[in-house]
Design brief:
Strand order of the largest sheet of chain B: 1-2
Strand order of the largest sheet of chain A: 6-7-8-3-9-10
Largest sheet of chain A: 6 strands, mixed
Helix content of chain B: over 70%
Strand content of chain B: under 5%
CATH superfamily of the largest domain in chain A: P-loop containing nucleotide triphosphate hydrolases
Number of helices of chain A: 10
Order of helices and strands of chain B: HHHHEEHHHHHHHH
Helix content of chain A: 25-40%
CATH architecture of the largest domain in chain A: 3-Layer(aba) Sandwich
Number of strands of chain B: 2
CATH topology of the largest domain in chain A: Rossmann fold
Structural class of chain B: mainly alpha
Structural class of chain A: alpha/beta
CATH class of the largest domain in chain A: Alpha Beta
Radius of gyration of chain A: 19 Å
Radius of gyration of chain B: 20 Å
Order of helices and strands of chain A: EEEHEEHEHHHHEHEHEEHH
Distance between the termini of chain A: 47 Å
Number of domains of chain B: 1
Number of strands of chain A: 10
Oligomer: heterodimer
Shape of chain B: globular
Number of helices of chain B: 12
Largest sheet of chain B: 2 strands, antiparallel
Number of domains of chain A: 2
């Protein structure tokens, strides 16, 4: 199926971020179009996660701006970003460990719950109906990710690969416009990676979700991305379609080093 | 035999009150990962507010019906506790998002001193009475089984019922409602909770208000038994061994831990006291907690923490 890549949905302009004297990001600009899979790659410490955290509102960049659907914002916290329709997964799992798979994914529906907290607390009529409606959506996500068997298991007890899936499920439950994935395949074996790839492509295809992906596995990145941004030492050294990036000399140098 | 049962009953009643205070600790810990050292100060503060408002409101408004005065006093004290919760979130917790647990613990230590001071400044430092009309007369149970029966204080029975009802309500709230789920989510991971759009500040105000409510109920029960005075703040220290015993993350644990310690200290005081020279009641809880720390550090019902290496 040919994908319909749309207008620019997310634009990052001249972002610079420093922690004290350490410059994590210097003057980074790129854009993300609707429905595309946009990857950010780079060697360790290149600033990929920092970039994602800026978009997500965890870090406030000292310079530059980020605009989402044409709206520019400078100071946003994670919650506001979530409200605008941006979800994320975490590099080091940040699941609610004591809670079941179902409950973890249900928390992702929080923003879609219209009833106020008091009604929810009392499980008053409308709140009860709402809970059931939300549960239906969550069950669909559970089916989609093929984790039906673990519904009631506390996530802390699941193997790593499945925890990563739950993390994705929780983000999907938000029905986001843009999904930020921070190394969704780190630490997985080949089979798990294949599964995860399939889920990412399906999400992109079926729900039309725009995906911003950070990943180390070059094979995966080159296979599934529409366009790739390459960072090194906090600077952008390449941007374009996978094939173009693969030929880029700066990128080759950054990954393989050069002889002096 | 009748005497032993009477001792156990006495212990259960004191234990129920420890449980109520421990419940406040557990609530806040479960919902925000903060070990709230200020729970005892909150009990004192709430009890002071209740005692004084129940006295002031009739003076201000001329209401002479004691029930109406108590209900209004209770409402006013609860409102004060909500305001306290809001202020704590605004002035302290919101500045400490994503900080280490120890940082938050230190903050609650500061809140403790503030509440103790502010409470006495606003409400006075005398000993006050709370009279919510709890029946004081004793009743005798099992008169057929034992000679003379078992003497139980009616007030204690009522207190136990109130505590049990609160526990049931809170357990339902945490496990079965969307808000409860959001609270548990925040406790596990601040950042992840924010990234899915859970409003941290609202959640914290709710938890601290609920803990304030629990403190108020505990304060009223203790206060109507022993009078409202500064030492109420110290009773809360007894709740520390209770949460160690029961597990910091478990609502039922707080209750059972409280009962165990209540009964344990009474029974050992009565039966071991003559052998060891008495005063066991004072240290029993702490020694028991120490032993638990050695053998089962997560407590009876706490979540065992397993780290992947």
């Amino acid at each position: 199926m040919a994908k319909k890549i749309g207008e620019v949905i997310l634009e990052v302009k001249n972002i610079s971020l420093a922690f004290g004297g350490v410059k994590a990001l210097t003057d980074i600009s790129f854009d993300v179009r609707e429905h595309e899979i946009r990857s950010i790659i780079g060697p360790n410490g290149a600033g990929k996660s920092s970039m994602l955290n800026c978009i997500n509102g965890v870090y406030q960049p000292q310079q530059g701006s980020i605009s989402f659907k044409g709206q520019t914002f400078k100071h946003m916290n994670s919650r506001q970003v979530a409200e605008m329709g941006v979800a994320r997964t975490f590099q080091n799992l940040a699941l609610f460990k004591g809670m079941s798979v179902l409950d973890n994914i249900m928390t992702g529906r929080n923003l879609h719950m219209k009833c106020n907290l008091l009604l929810q607390a009392l499980r008053w009529g409308p709140a009860e109906r709402e809970e059931i409606a939300q549960r239906e959506k969550v069950e669909r996500i559970i089916d989609f990710l093929e984790i039906q068997a673990y519904r009631k298991t506390p996530v802390g007890r699941l193997p790593y690969g499945l925890q990563k899936r739950v993390d994705l499920g929780r983000a999907l439950a938000m029905e986001p416009k843009v999904l930020l994935l921070d190394e969704p395949m780190a630490g997985m074996n080949v089979e798990e990676k294949q599964d995860m790839c399939r889920f990412i492509l399906d999400v992109n295809d079926e729900f039309g979700t725009t995906i911003v992906l950070i990943e180390h596995d070059m094979g995966v990145v080159m296979d599934i991305s529409d366009r790739v941004v390459v960072l090194d030492y906090g600077k952008k050294i390449g941007d374009g379609e996978p094939d173009a990036v693969r030929q880029n000399e700066d990128v080759i140098r950054a990954y393989l080093g050069t002889s002096h | 035999m009748g005497f032993l049962i009477e001792t156990i009953f006495g212990g259960l009643m004191t234990g129920m009150l420890y449980s109520l205070i421990a419940l406040g600790f557990v609530l806040i810990y479960k919902a925000s990962g903060v070990f709230n050292f200020a729970q005892g100060a909150m009990v004192l503060f709430a009890a002071l507010a209740m005692a004084r408002f129940a006295e002031w409101i009739p003076q201000w408004t001329g209401i002479s019906n004691p029930i109406a005065a108590n209900v209004l006093g209770f409402a006013a004290a609860f409102a004060v506790m909500i305001a306290v919760a809001w202020l704590i979130e605004r002035l302290a917790l919101s500045k400490l998002v994503n900080q280490e647990g120890i940082t938050l613990l230190m903050a609650t230590l500061g809140i403790t001193y503030f509440l103790e001071g502010a409470g006495q400044m606003l409400f006075g430092s005398d000993i006050y009475k709370i009279d919510v009309g709890m029946p004081k007369d004793p009743i005798f149970l099992f008169e057929k089984a034992f000679e003379g029966g078992v003497l139980v204080n009616k007030e204690d029975l009522y207190a136990a019922l109130i505590a049990a009802a609160m526990v049931a309500l809170l357990a339902l709230f945490f496990q079965k409602t969307a808000t409860g789920r959001a609270l548990r989510a925040v406790a596990d991971d601040h950042q992840a909770a924010q990234s899915i759009g859970i409003p941290l500040s609202t959640i914290w105000v709710i938890v601290w208000s609920v803990a304030g409510f629990v403190a108020l109920v505990a304060g009223i029960i203790w206060g109507s038994k022993l009078g409202v005075q500064f030492s109420l703040s110290l009773v809360a220290l007894k709740a520390l061994p209770v949460v160690i015993l029961g597990g910091l993350t478990s609502v039922p644990g707080a209750i059972i831990g409280g009962l165990l310690i209540g009964v344990g200290e009474k029974v050992s005081e009565v039966y071991l006291g003559p052998l060891l020279g008495g005063g066991i009641e004072i240290w029993f809880a702490y020694v028991l907690a120490l032993m638990f720390l050695l053998v089962r550090p997560q407590g009876l019902f706490g979540e065992k923490i397993i780290d992947r290496v």
